[in-house]
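Hey, I'm writing a tutorial for new members on how sequence and structure tokens pair up, and I'd like a real worked example in the thread rather than a made-up one. If someone can provide the structure for the chain below, I'll link this post from the tutorial.
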Amino acid sequence: MIIVFDLDYTLLNTKKFKSDMAKAMGISLAVFKKSYEEHSKNSATNYILEDHLDYLVKTGKYEASQKKIIKKKVMNFLKKIDNYLFSSAAPVLAELSARGHKLEMITYGNRRWQRLKVGNLKIKKYFQRVIITDKNKHDQLRFWKKKEANVCFVNDNAKEVVCIREILPRAQFILIKGPYAFNHPHNFKVYNLKDCLKIIK
């Protein structure tokens, strides 16, 4: 079986990751959240670190001379991204890989930013393919159309899962518990990540 994992909030504790990223940037979580949301809302390509720093300079949170220093701190922070994986992430991926399943990842966001995140993850070794898109995920589903009956999507975002199911109705879906598990009406059961090992044989 081909098992396609989402990254943020599915394998990665993105809430904790953002909280500690704010600390690395030397700003409060409240300032981080507000500036992150405002920046991302005004960006055509979602989150861009450099533009976020520019936004923080523009709004008086940093001096322009601090940008390079803060960026270096964030780059060093990203090297520790494995610390923000959910505890069951690596064991689940290792076991499913050992069972002979083909593991793939699809993640949404600014391509450069997501590449930085994925590139620093040790678990990337388990994935035979990683797709990073700044478009809707369902626009990338051509990769699995011919094999949909043998594909399982593991994702925390109910809206994305519902959209994918409309295009690939014969695929299997495991909706993971998280902040976006009920952002759209659905009839899926919600699971913990480790439940994948019971569902996928």
